[in-house]
Amino acid sequence: MRQYKLFILLIQVAIFSVRTNAGFERIAQPTALFARAFSGVAFSSESNVWLNPAALSNVSSFRSAVFYSPSPFQLPQLTNYGLLAADNFGVVKGGVSFSSFGFSLYKETFGSLSVAYTGMTNFSFGITVSLYHLSIESYGSALKLGIDIGSIYSLTEELNIGFALNNLNGATYEEDDDIPQIILAGLSYRIIEEAVVNVDLVKDIRYEPTYRAGIEFEPHDIVVVRSGFQGKPSRLFAGIGFTVTRFTIDYGVATHDDLGLTHSIGISFIP
Question: Which residues, including other chains, have CB under 8 Å from residue 210's CB and lie 6 or more apart?
């Protein structure tokens, strides 16, 4: 039985590696961000804190969110979920977050503390300190510390530019591809009051750059519609959110030419 489990683990990790090129790719993300194709490095929203800690700059009061993605690509072993909470402490905004990916034989967990400073006009800067935990059955576990930095600058009321560096300190499990070091840069443009377009350039330092683009549109106070696409691998994303009293319920879906659909559901709460 042990040999069978190891065999299945190796096959599943191989499939996952073909799709992501590495572990700790941060595919466990809030549903709102997922539905925009993970775009928004220049978009100030607490759901983007995993992309850019400066995204906390818009937090005006306490808020929290949970999200869950069951069986991505019809593989329950790739299930991921997470939670985050953020609050306003004046010129400093703070947040904590947690996510988990995998199953009993192979699991990645990721916990973070983020702080954004907003004391400068039109500019915010943030830093995240994270603990990466990797567990492989029969092989043990390991814990590493990583640091992210990021900034957002408002060129005009409608246009923001953002920059972030994930894993600034180059944390690794002594393997070249364990914890990616990624540079992100992007634009966020509010084309009308109800709609924001985000375009990001994403560069893993080991690979060719790729892109992500997404839009978020609020046709009504209680409804938000999202969509996006990304390259390498090419995928399409869409989603919708409904606000009921203090809760917002979000749903997102993504396509893949070979592996099918991935779904995500999330609930946000603002007292």
Answer: 201, 202, 203, 230, 231, 232
Are the C-beta atoms of residues 150 and 55 closer than 8 Å to each other?
Answer: yes
Cα separation, 9 vs 6, in Å, equals 5
Cβ–Cβ under 8 Å, residues 84 and 73? no
Place of tokens 């065999």: 7
The helix (run of H) or strand (run of E) holding residue 24 is none
Instruction: Provide the sign of the torsion angle of the four alpha carbons 26, 47, 263, 252, taken in this order.
Output: negative
**C-alpha to C-alpha distance for 58 and 46, rounded to whole angstroms:** 7
Q: Mean pLDDT per segment of 10 residues, for the chain of length 271 residues?
A: 40 40 71 96 94 95 95 85 96 96 90 96 96 89 94 97 95 73 96 97 92 96 96 91 95 87 94 86
Which top CATH class is 2-269?
mainly beta
DSSP conformation letters of 144-211? EEEEEEEEEEESSSSEEEEEEEESTT---SSSTTSS--EEEEEEEEEEETTEEEEEEEEEETTS--EE
How many angstroms separate the CA atoms of 96 and 76, rounded?
A: 26
SS3 230: strand
**What pTM value is reported for the model?**
0.87
Would you say 80 and 99 are in contact if contact means Cβ atoms under 8 Å apart?
yes
